């Protein structure tokens, strides 16, 4: 492990967990996979190098056999449903959303049904019946309609609330979507990680989800993922788990 000084707050918090004989549950989600790319290769190599399981949110509409063939040998990868085409249907002045009520509900649900079936067929051993809504947004009215199609969980962003379906959320987004569209500064992300760990130490049992977007990573983003894995993989106080472990 290197002597990265900016990671010291995380090391200190993990030392507290180790002293208490406790382990924090982590999981990793990367969004927007469609086809094999050098960026995806880079992400998968990090998964292999540090033995970290990953959930890939695959966009069903445009994806196909090439990605399935690329992932077939990746035993640490779980495939989840990322909407249908990741298309925005919300008005210009509002937040982007594919899974809202801007279209007839029956059309939205039909797309989610088709996406489920397509990815389940492409990934017979790696598919997990979890929906990752594009932009982490889905209208609440759709949630009760998902389980009849076979969905067992939804993953959005933030601490999970009560819902008619299991929520396995992410809590750390490494990207700066409103600035340079690269990775956020590491110090702030480390601070967020420590906040989430303190929340869990005080009683919240929710697994901590880290979210990335491999197609738009810059050097800052890639550097954070590698440093995070180097600091945490194999640590006595951390368990990187496959997301399927958290489905009830």
Automatic annotation (TrEMBL):
<dbReference type="InterPro" id="IPR011330">
    <property type="entry name" value="Glyco_hydro/deAcase_b/a-brl"/>
</dbReference>
<dbReference type="GO" id="GO:0005975">
    <property type="term" value="P:carbohydrate metabolic process"/>
</dbReference>
<dbReference type="InterPro" id="IPR049591">
    <property type="entry name" value="CE4_u4-like"/>
</dbReference>
<protein>
    <submittedName>
        <fullName>Polysaccharide deacetylase</fullName>
    </submittedName>
</protein>
């Amino acid at each position: 492990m290197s002597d990265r000084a900016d990671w010291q707050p995380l090391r200190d918090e993990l030392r507290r967990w180790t002293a208490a004989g406790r382990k924090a549950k982590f999981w990793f989600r990367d969004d927007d996979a469609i086809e094999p790319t050098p960026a995806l290769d880079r992400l998968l190599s990090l998964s292999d190098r540090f033995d970290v399981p990953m959930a890939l949110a695959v966009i069903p509409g445009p994806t196909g056999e090439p990605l399935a063939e690329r992932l077939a040998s990746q035993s640490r990868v779980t495939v989840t449903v990322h909407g249908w085409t990741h298309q925005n249907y919300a008005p210009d002045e509002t937040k982007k959303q594919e899974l809202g009520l801007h279209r007839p509900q029956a059309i939205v649900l039909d797309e989610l049904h088709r996406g489920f079936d397509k990815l389940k067929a492409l990934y017979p051993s790696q598919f997990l019946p979890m929906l990752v809504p594009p932009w982490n947004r889905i209208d609440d009215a759709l949630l009760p309609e998902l389980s009849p199609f076979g969905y067992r969980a939804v993953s959005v962003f933030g601490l999970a609330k009560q819902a008619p379906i299991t929520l396995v959320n992410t809590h750390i987004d490494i990207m700066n979507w409103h600035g340079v569209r690269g990775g956020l500064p590491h110090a702030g992300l480390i601070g967020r990680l420590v906040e989430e760990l303190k929340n869990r130490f005080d009683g919240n049992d929710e697994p901590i989800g880290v979210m990335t977007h491999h197609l738009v990573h810059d050097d800052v983003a890639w550097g954070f993922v590698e440093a995070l894995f180097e600091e945490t993989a194999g640590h006595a106080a951390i368990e990187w788990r496959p997301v399927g472990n958290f489905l009830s």
